Amino acid sequence: MRIQRVATVVRRAAPALLAMALPTLSHARAEDPISDFEANCMSCHTIGGGRLTGPDLKDVSQRKDRAWLARFIVEPATVIDSGDAYALKLRNEARGVVMPAIAGMTLDRAKALLELIEAESALEKSKFAGIQMSDRPFTEDDVRLGREIFLGTQPLKNGGAACVSCHSVSGIGVLAGGGLGPELSDVYGRLNGRKGLGTWLAAPATTTMQSIFAPHPLDGDKEILPLLAYFSDIAQDPPESSQAATLIFILLGLSGTAAALMIFDLMWKGRFTGVRKALVAASSDGVEAKQQ
Amino acid sequence: MELSSGFLNYLDVFLFGALPYLSLTIFLIVTIQRYRQDTFTYSTLSSQFLENRQHFWAMVPFHYGLLTVLAGHIVAFAIPRAILAWNGVPIRLYVLEVSALICGLLTAVGLVMALIRRSKDTRVRGVTTASDWVLFAMLLFQVSTGVLIAVFVGWGSSWFAAAVSPYLWSLVKFQPDWAFIVGLPLLAKLHIVSAFLMIAFFPFTRLVHVLVIPNQYLWRRAQMVRWYGFRGSR
Fold first, then answer.
1. Which residue, of B59, B102, B154, B165, has the greatest Cβ tally within 10 A?
2. What CATH number was assigned to the domain covering residues A140-236?
3. How near does any CA of chain A get to the CA of B39, in Å?
């Protein structure tokens, strides 16, 4: 009886709880197509600015019908796995990179995005034509500054965390860089060089990078450009394995632990060790002696 | 495919948007209620009298290690900018990370010693409750994921300051933003979820002793303990 009553309450409350949770799910990132495009598309696509990791989306709806495009935006992997010829062609053009599924993407959101892309395609110059950054050749100074920015010795102007916090590259010292994000030695080629990587850094596409750098964006000419110079410079070196760095880190930790244990032993040199046992024995002897 | 990713979305919302509040609520209500109802259970019930040799190797490394690591988490939560500034010089970052790893390993050594002592020594095992064993399991999980993160998902001191601290502040402001967390590696997510679970379980365990630390132990004079029934002197 009582269980039934509880069950009824839960059943009645469940839709209300769900309704409360749902708006927070899509996380205020999708309320309008412009911010949706900025958050989820811009790091790989331009509208009229040429190819990045993904194709230039100018006039995309003239190349393929809208129903197909909307479905592809919602579930890219499924369309590719179905063996669709056009999807496979896109994948080949992107050198095998598959468009990631965007969390919470719906057909309605995809249609709103397609409308935005159509409207922007009609403009002479879309605001999504790619970031405006100097295209002067990289200098030695750029590479040096880029390395300092990567390591954090040159702090980021807007207070973002240095790359080394989460990423490693070849040739930055015994203990290398962080392991949270991917290794970046070959990132310059992987994200299609200067333009692709530059756009990515201006509008990162992973949730973690997005949430860390949205409030602390990188500066185009002063920070992204030197970083690009640095990444293009190290792309020429052979990649280094980070296993040695991990091993050194573990060994440092273990020897430090052993040293700390020895220090504890010394610090409490005068602690009770065998004394209490003897006391207990003597004490019970005494009690026994009394009883006899 | 779509269904499972939808389910994972909800799971993330629950684990990183709801669970922290659920845990804190349980923590507050039960902690207060237990203090009012069973005041004198607010103790860790020392077993040092029952076994005193292994006790040293369990308790000393465990407490010094854990308190340092915990303090590190709290500092990185409170003043993340300062941590990032400190880590701005690679050698300082490495010193901080190696020290943190050492303290994590000390905690692990102490915990394993405590587990061995509790299960081997008959008298100590006799005063060990079910909640103690559950707590051991939780601590073991928490400490081992922590050490694994330190080794394989570096550099935690920096990315805690950059990603986890803003997430925790979003919880404090009652505007949970789990976007910081959902993309983290599984190890880090497990460590965070298990921390929330431990906060919820806290008031049901001997951990309550941390709320009633007899601070005067730090400065009061040493006490002489005499044994009743012991005659004569040596």
1. B154
2. 1.10.760.10
3. 31
